Amino acid sequence: MCRLLGFVSTEEKSLVEAAGKEFTEFAALSSRHGDGWGIATCNVQEHVDLLVEPTRAKDSKAFDKASHELKSNGALLHLRWATGGLAINEGNTHPFAYRDFSFTHNGALIPPDAVDAFIEPKYAVLRRGQTDSESYFYLIITEIEKFGVERGILSAINIIRKNCVYSSINGMFLTPTEFFVINEHNDERIPQGELPGYYDLFYRTDGAEVLVASSGWTQTGWQELPNHSLMKVNRTNLEINISNLND
Q1: Which residues contact 19 (CB under 8 A, 6 or more apart)?
Q2: Would you say 76 and 40 are in contact if contact means Cβ atoms under 8 Å apart?
Q3: How many CB atoms lie within 10 A of CB 57?
Q4: pLDDT surpassing 90 at residue 43
Q5: Angle 149-163/132-147 helices, nearest 10 degrees?
Q6: DSSP secondary-structure letter at 139?
Q7: Hey, where are the domains in the chain?
Q8: Where are the alpha helices (DSSP H) in 72-191?
Q9: Which CATH number describes the domain made up of 2-244?
Q10: Euclidean distance between CA atoms 56 and 80, whole angstroms
Q11: What is the 3-state secondary structure (H, E, C) of 11-61?
Q12: What is the pLDDT at residue 84?
């Protein structure tokens, strides 16, 4: 299981600048979610840059430097808590990227290969690790090729909902023009020892930035993103649209 954070803004900024003074609280969540960290940045109309390290974020000099100095107008941050049996290595560390797309996931598909049969073989061979999260990502890429970005994401979600058991398929998907947040989870499958609301996602916006993140740190004044929903943010004007996945 993992912690997610993503933002898009009208100006380039670091993760620390985007998240504000409470960012240290978010980084501290790596005490439990300490099996790797990763950052994907993608400026408007540019390509993805990816930085991952299979170590605990709060103890990493590279993480500290990147979170303060790596600037962009769109980024994803992932703190990994490895699903049981999956290796802690660079290949299994989020985010995952393909061309202009990057993706992070919090949750587990049961079994881990539950969607592999739905992935186009030419994408399956691009995998750099063994996680169900990367399978989820390439399922989305497969469906995007058929239907375009938004419809492709929705198609992938529907395939998982119809064919898989899962704790959560919460995810963040960043493109050069849009930022998507998937909130689809099962509160009956919260990890042992975690509080209710573990899978909840919250967001805030001030007209110049949209920031979305997992729970577990100070989020005073943030809005809760409903479960079973898809958020889409237009990176040109930061317009937010939230649709119900059950409609």
Answers
A1: 5, 7, 26, 211, 213
A2: yes
A3: 28
A4: no
A5: 130
A6: H
A7: 2-244
A8: 121-124, 132-147, 149-163
A9: 3.60.20.10
A10: 9
A11: EEECHHHHHCCCHHHHHHHHHCCCCCEEEEECCCCCCCEEEEECCCHHHCH
A12: 77
Question: Is the separation of the CB atoms in 217 and 162 below 8 Å?
Answer: no
| Chain mean pLDDT for the chain | 96
pLDDT of residue 85: 74
Q: Which two tokens stand for residue 151?
A: 């419809």
Residues sharing a CB contact under 8 Å with residue 118, sequence separation 6 or more, in sequence order: 139, 142, 159, 163
Q: Which amino acid is at 27?
A: A
Residue with tokens 């985010």: 95
Give dist(CA 125, CA 110) in Å, integer. Answer: 21
Residue 115 contacts residue 136 (beta carbons within 8 Å): yes
Beta strand 170-174 with 178-183: parallel, antiparallel or unpaired?
antiparallel
Question: In whole angstroms, what is the distance from residue 25 CA to residue 17 CA?
Answer: 14
| The pLDDT of residue 99 is above 80 | yes
- Tokens coding 47: 């390509």
Span 209-225, mean pLDDT?
Answer: 97
CA distance 175 to 44: 8
Q: Hey, is 67 helix, strand or coil? A: helix
The count of C-alpha atoms lying within 13 angstroms of the C-alpha of 150, restricted to the half-sphere facing its C-beta, is 13
- Residue whose C-alpha is closest to residue 57's, from 73, 80, 41, 82: 80
